[in-house]
Amino acid sequence: MTNKIKVILIHKLLSSKIQFLKGVGPANAVKLSKLGILTIGQLLEHYPRRYEDRSKLKSITELTDGQYESFRAVVIHVNELKSRRGFKIIKIAVQDQAGVAQLTWFNQSYMKNKYKPGMELIISGKIQRHANIIEVTKPDIEPASEFYAGSGRIIPVYPTTEDVPQWRLRSLILQAINLLKNSVTPEEIESLPTSIIDKHNLLTRKQALVNIHFAVDMETLVKARRRLVFEELFLLQCGLAYLKQRNKYNSKGIKHAPDGVLVAKVENHLSFKLTNDQNKTLREIKADMEDVTPMQRLVQGDVGSGKTVIAAIALAKTVENGYQGAMMAPTEILAEQHYHTLAQLLAPHSIKLAILTGKLSRRTRDEVLRHFKDGAIDVVVGTHALIQDDVEFAHLGLVVTDEQHRFGVRQRARLESKGNQPDVLIMTATPIPRTMALTVYGDLDVSIIRELPPGRQPVATYSRSNTRRNKVYLFAAEQIKAGRQVYVVCPLVEESDKIEAQSAVKIYEELSATFFKNIPCALLHGKMKPQEKEAIMTAFSCGDIKALIATTVIEVGVNVPNATVMIIEGADRFGLAQLHQLRGRVGRGKYKSYCILLSDNTNEETLERLKIMTEVNDGFVLADRDLLLRGPGQFFGTNQHGLPDLKIANIVTDTDILLEARSAAQHTVCTPEYLDTVWQTLQNWFGEKFSMIFCR
Ligand code: ADP
Ligand code: MG
């Protein structure tokens, strides 16, 4: 690339403090900083949340009860009343050609001096219609003159706080736009190579910034947005492509030899035949390991698709080559489970295994650590305990992390750093929709195990309203009498662990006094101590406990083949991907299994969503549907998935642009200079999340 490119964030105007603008003193600067706006550049990148078409403001008589609407009206009089309980109530009557409306505030006397008869206002708020009166309580108000600042027909509406009124934000942005128009040339703030702009038919950055705020018409607005979405995704993909290339030209990795006797022994002793997808994945892994470039591979496979076996064979391969392997799981229960599985597969072939969790006594731990260091232990399975500073290896050749999204990228990097460029395998049972994978894991190679081992019966799934709850629990009790075990998952309460735990306690008390009377039951929730949780999980695993009433803390990956019933209370509160994960706890053995989704929600969309669960068993299909239904932010139900909060792009609806930008990024040869600026821009945009994505 020959063009010299500067990035917007380093231009003088854009890096100027916001106080540079008229009307921004110290007080306003503090208020704006709460919106993340410190510089003029950040102000210009504070994109509208939506737009209002000025020709579409409604008249008062057209306002709909219960809706959030905007209208334009003139103040006719201002009144202050006192309620019986001593509140001050301010009422302002406003009118347009069609009718009258009343605006109400409580205990905000200053309002009465702020608005005078004759003032023209744009009023937004939730409309309440009682009989003949239209009322709006605590509306958003802006002077009409400010509202029309910028003059276009399309008015931007910004995300903001109560502190910074819409109109103020709008007028500051207008001021900044005027400065931009008058004192900066397009070249000075362009972030994309000219060749890319031409080829993809994009607006310049300057044009796009002006029009995303104050567009001359709808068509230009669409173009402005497309340019900014493209830019964001292009830079992100450049960063990912760079990571991948850097890895590719890294010739200091470990070159494993082609398969020898040990790998053959492990493979020949399996009690089953690998599926086609398992074989394909294994071939890809082996090829990576035999290459000098360090492997960076993500294996996606639904619960029960047989990922652990694949990991075991890869671990045997590294041991065969004289290296050690480490596998990290997010919880002790999972680490123990993997340890047992791996021991069964590897120990008969004189591979020495150890487990490292927080539970070990000091003495045992010291001994285990000593044998990591002197190389006497070949394979270790553990939790976070593996990444502590005093854990050292003789020669780490392969790092496997399970359930990757539970680990921060940094934690993974710390384990990898205990070896000298080991091969890395990441396994996840959460199917990730393709567009999301391209963004979050864009620098990794991906293998997918779609096919389940033969003979698996799909879990029979039913959606039931609470009127049939009795029947459902009677059925569960019957299954327990027949020797099986049951999970009951309590409603999800996103905001509060405490309320969630309380609701679990209630359900537990109810069930153990009624349907599960005389049946050994246990309660499991996030507020319990780790030891308590473990003791309960262990008792459930070995069958002492028959019914487990739990919040979503029941671990992904927990394997109790005797459990055949999964009852999910308040199922409407969960996403499809989450429901699928929970369902994966049953159907792991030889018995027919059931998943029952209880919900009293009668919303048509919700029922439709639950119905999808009863019809679809493929986690990848569900993941795509879930992403479509709930959007990327909600997808994993947590904030730890490493997906940056994109400023303007939406990977669900902007898929086409994503693919276009990705392909463009992969075909762009970036100069170190350009990468530097890309890096800086991304860092500025994504802040904290930047290191999560890019410090692999
Ligand atoms: P995952 O880790 O992907 O959830 P596991 O590796 O735990 O799945 O496999 C689930 C179960 O299926 C295990 O009991 C495993 O032994 C068995 N299994 C794995 N691969 C096959 C196969 N190809 N044929 C039959 N059973 C298999
Ligand atoms: Mg290698």
Automatic annotation (TrEMBL):
Residues 468-628 form the Helicase C-terminal domain. GO terms for molecular function: DNA helicase activity; hydrolase activity. It comes from the Bacteria. InterPro entries: ATP-dep_DNA_helicase_RecG (IPR004609), DEAD/DEAH_box_helicase_dom (IPR011545), Helicase_ATP-bd (IPR014001), Helicase_C-like (IPR001650), NA-bd_OB-fold (IPR012340), P-loop_NTPase (IPR027417), RecG/Mfd (IPR047112), RecG_dom3_C (IPR045562). Its EC number is 5.6.2.4. Residues 288-449 form the Helicase ATP-binding domain. The keyword DNA damage applies. It catalyses: ATP + H2O = ADP + phosphate + H(+); Couples ATP hydrolysis with the unwinding of duplex DNA by translocating in the 3'-5' direction. Belongs to the helicase family. RecG subfamily. Plays a critical role in recombination and DNA repair. Helps process Holliday junction intermediates to mature products by catalyzing branch migration. Has replication fork regression activity, unwinds stalled or blocked replication forks to make a HJ that can be resolved. Has a DNA unwinding activity characteristic of a DNA helicase with 3'-5' polarity. This is ATP-dependent DNA helicase RecG. It comes from Sporomusa acidovorans (strain ATCC 49682 / DSM 3132 / Mol). The lineage of its organism: Bacteria, Bacillati, Bacillota, Negativicutes, Selenomonadales.
